[in-house]
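Researcher: Please translate sequence to structure tokens.
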Amino acid sequence: MARAFNDKTLKQVITEILCAYGMEKRYTELDIEAHYRHLVGEYISRKTRDVKLREKTLVLRIESGPIKEEISYQKSLILASINEQFGKVIAEDIQILG
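Model: Translation complete:
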């Protein structure tokens, strides 16, 4: 008896499973958080308490005033890097909360 093979990559299969169980948004948030922490470095990531994605807006909760200012200067770079990582527009804006 011959086995039927699918021409799907592992990434495609995992994405389909995440969509089927409604976990794709949470997975995307975790992936964004990991990429954000790698992008901004150790010090800034320690000062960032929360990274969330709400309707194409990346919401950052940062506890340091100077870090908030630095992130506001680097908004376009952070957005471009995150969107490039995913190959599509995931976030269009960054909201910084205290």
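Researcher: Any highlights?
Model: Residues 24-40 form the longest helix (17 residues).
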